[in-house]
Design goal:
Two copies of one chain form a homodimer.
Chain A (H helix, E strand, L loop, with lengths): L10 H15 L11 H8 L3 H13 L3 E4 L3 E4 L3 H25 L4 H17 L3
Antiparallel strand pairs in A: 1-2
The first copy, chain A, binds a DNA duplex (30 and 30 nucleotides) through α3.
DNA sequence: CTTATTGTACTAGGTGATTAATACAATAAG
DNA sequence: CTTATTGTATTAATCACCTAGTACAATAAG
């Protein structure tokens, strides 16, 4: 089934984020082989060129490396993966706090909001 | 000085968000008059048409109303502003939690991360 | 060796976003 | 009344993104 592309941002950038997320979460383990460009494109429901472009971006960041005819592989570099995870959460948290402050919320309110949200979801155990 | 446009999302959508943020935070008080389309475009560093498009979007959501030649005004509807603030924070928090969960973080880790981030910033009082 | 698969490159076309340059009616301000 | 300002509409041109289709060299698999 095709992946979901929400905002108006370029699809290839959204794909990059999705792939990064899958790498950071371990869904694509270190050293594992990625599906081929064509298969990934089919899976995502986009043109192979678009997927190729997204993968080229990942290449530049060193998270994956391509071996001409054997396929693409996730880096074995454990520290790179730790860095990825850390930098991603850093960015996500910073952006989150900045956004809520931007609409006039205090730090206490921000923390409370997160706590409430998590707790309210845990209550929904029917 | 021109506004900052980060991601690859369409500028007019980013402008809509910026304006919503300014309304939600009270930077643009209820009933107050917005700068003209041309002035806002100049301030944001975009073409007047782009600003016009963003403002038309805001119009549809009922947050502002235009009076032909007198200018544009923020709605006086206090409840609409409360709703805006609430829905914006709802969306921001939901997206935030989903993102961190997406890279494999537990709810406890998420809460800790926010707490740490806020506390670490408070330490920086030279 | 033969063949299928892989990453990669290239051209072309369509679409939407953005800019540019005007133009106009309504009206607040003088 | 006259004038400047306002929101709004229109047309055209440019650019990035996306899709489509094709092609090629390298190599793993048979």
């Amino acid at each position: 089934m095709a992946w979901k592309f929400n905002d108006g941002a370029p699809i290839y950038l959204q794909i990059v984020n999705t792939l990064k997320r899958n790498i950071a979460s371990g869904a694509y383990p270190p050293g594992s082989r990625l599906p081929s460009v064509r298969d990934l494109a089919l899976e995502a429901g986009v043109n192979p060129n678009t997927m190729q472009r997204a993968l080229s971006e990942l290449e530049r960041s060193g998270l994956v490396n391509s071996q001409r005819t054997a396929g693409r592989f996730i880096t074995e570099d454990a520290s790179a993966l730790l860095d990825l995870r850390k930098s991603m959460s850093e960015e996500i948290v910073s952006e989150f706090i900045a956004r809520l402050r931007g609409i006039g919320m205090s730090d206490e309110q921000i923390l409370d909001t997160v706590r409430d949200k998590i707790n309210s979801e845990h209550k929904e155990e029917t």
